[in-house]
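Amino Acid Chain and Its Fold in Token Form
===========================================
Scope: a single protein chain, as residues and as a discrete description of its fold.
Amino acid sequence: labelled as such and written in the usual single-letter residue code.
Position: the record begins directly beneath this header, with no further notes in between.
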Amino acid sequence: MNYKLLPRLDLPNDLKKLSLKQEELLCEEIRAKIIETVSKNGGHLSSNLGAVELTVAIHRVFDSPKDKIVFDVGHQSYAHKLLTGRYKNFGTLRQKGGISGFTRPSESEHDACVSGHSSNSISVALGMAEAMKLSGDDHHAVAVIGDGALTGGLAFEGLNNAGRSGTNIVIILNYNEMSISKNIGGIATYLSELRTQDSYKRFKTGAKKVLGAIPVVGSGISKIISRSKDDLKEKLLHSTMFEDFGFEFIGPVDGHNLVKLEAALKSAKEMNCPVLVQVNTVKGKGYKPAEDQPGEYHGVSCFDIETGDKPAAGACFADVFGTELASYAEKDKRIVGITAAMKYGAGLNHFKGNLKERLFDVGIAEEHAVSFAAGLASMGKIPVFSVYSSFLQRSYDELLHDISIPRLHAVIAICNAGIVGGDGETHQGIFDVPFLTTIPGATVYSPSSFEELKICLKKALYDDDGLVCLRFPKGDEEPCDISATDSYYLSDRNSDTLIVSYGRAAVQAAEAAKELNCDILKLTRIFPLQQEIYDIIKKYKKVYIIEEGSRSGSIGEKLAAQAPNAVHVAVDGFVPTMTLREAFDLYGFSKDKIIELIRSGR
């Protein structure tokens, strides 16, 4: 596309100078730039295309960075990035050292907070609004949250506090009937049934203006009406749930009509009190393949712009898991699947046909999912909650309190375990092992291959009791000539050097061990560790532990306690945006880096 405005404007400063026609052209250019970049780099497409006009209107009405704009999840912030001086670098989106796929304060003063996970925006924005109120600052905090994220309990904790806070907080509810999968449940139904309440808004505003003009008594009557607005509303129409929380409510507003959007947001800003604006948008707006299949184009690797075609995807760990679990569920009615709005990414889309009634999508509510699983388990079912590693972090207390203490049998399938690449710090699955291994009675498997995954799933369902966690990486398996096992594998090359590893990194470690002619100890059940694992390690002169995860609280730390001279290769801190291969080289998990380390004698 021939970009006429994006390269020439000083954004966001020039945005408020544009005519409506120029605004509309700018929206076209933003969409084109997002499609062009995501088609090459991958990223979140549908959510960003649906929020273009909304983001333009927000920046026209509010004054960033003095007004704080908090994007829930942040996967709809690409237009925001283009409107805040990052056009020239936008081609580096989701690349090492480039523009993040989410908001990051280290990247721009216009990014109010770190984002990546859902449902926290209202709480964060309220904290900012309260801080401004305490400081005598009359600027606004604006939270942009989708109806999918509103299914998360944390969002309601924020609403509960924000509605009657007396702060300048504006919550923009971006309603598109989607999170990643189609939204379900009571909140989704409620929002879909909400209708415009302009009749009430017009009546209230008009009446106050007329009465206020009456000499002597008019202003007094107007104040009485203001104080009695709840009684007035009750007579005219039922109040919304959000008004019951204490918010002024505006909407629904057409989320692709710039004039209506700006009018609604200006009204919200002028109220100087907690306001919730419902904006209706179309996920994938402006790109037909994404509009037709918003879930399929929510997060993509790359695609052909003309056709929308994506490279054929091979088998992946999540699909192998889901297919195998569904086959067991066909034969065993006790097996129940649970997903937190991610049945495709978590492999549970294979629960179809007669299995649909045993698949529960609880929305973006990981804590609820685990407690729900506990209830199922207490009644003799075998619940299997499939969830991304980085999202399971939210459920730590429920794992301890609701499953572990009562010794209930539940299976947690942990997808995207380990390094995931382009999504950056908030999505790397490197912390599940440290926190899971603090839970008494937990069993944790980390298979390296599809065959091993199948073996471990059967063990988790039928042989183990209590909390059983089955963690596996994103994507395809890598060829490995080590036999599949549910315990551990030890080579015997009569070497005094041992490499210990598990999961995907074990494949690289095994290849390095073969080339170096040293021994490899590949773990599959990584917790609890058998005593014989410690006994094996003690026999070797040199021990190298390669662990694709966080060092603190890791399996490697436990093993190194018995082998003080062991070299432990793991992650310290957070893993920023980069490809899997770049991360494996940087952190020393690749075959070549392992060989280099051992040959150096360190």
Summary: DSSP finds 24 helices and 19 strands in the chain. The first strand starts at residue 43 and ends at 44. The chain has three domains: 15-197+240-300, 317-471, 488-600. Residues 195-211, 224-237 have pLDDT under 50 and may be disordered.
